[in-house]
Design a protein that fits this description.
The protein is an alpha/beta fold. The chain is built from 6 helices and 4 strands; from the N terminus they run E-H-E-H-H-E-H-E-H-H. The chain has a single domain, classed as P-loop containing nucleotide triphosphate hydrolases (Rossmann fold, 3-Layer(aba) Sandwich). Helices cover 42% and strands 13% of the residues.
Amino acid sequence: MFKLILMQGAPGSGKSTMAARILSSYMVDYDKRTGSIRSADEYWYKVVNPDDPHQYDYDPALAGKNHIWNQHRVLADMMESVNIIIVDNTNTLKKEANPYVVLAKMFDYEVESVRVDPGLEVCLARNALRPEDRRVPEEIVRTMHGRMESLLD
């Protein structure tokens, strides 16, 4: 069984925490399973600032490249037959998730989406607690929370 799980939720919703729990449950429940969590946010650590991979270094001029980079990582995982791949992006719009769905079809992966939505106020409160360099402007959190659509129609 090969499965691609698309996380969906506004910043601060708890997607990364949920993704880790989901992957952990798959690793415990099945023998000889391999899994990965792939997030476009990792680009700002690993590619933009590789000398200090603990420093988040968002550069708006490079926005979009992080998603292409992440799609390439998912493709590489599929080519290596990783059993469970979790895409830990906001994926609020179907068009954002679609490149991953296309890859899944090419490699015969079952696709599932997991929406994490504790409510707008919780997302805003959690986002406010993030380090300043990781904080998303409140109006963007509100917009993203309000525009979530079904990813797999």
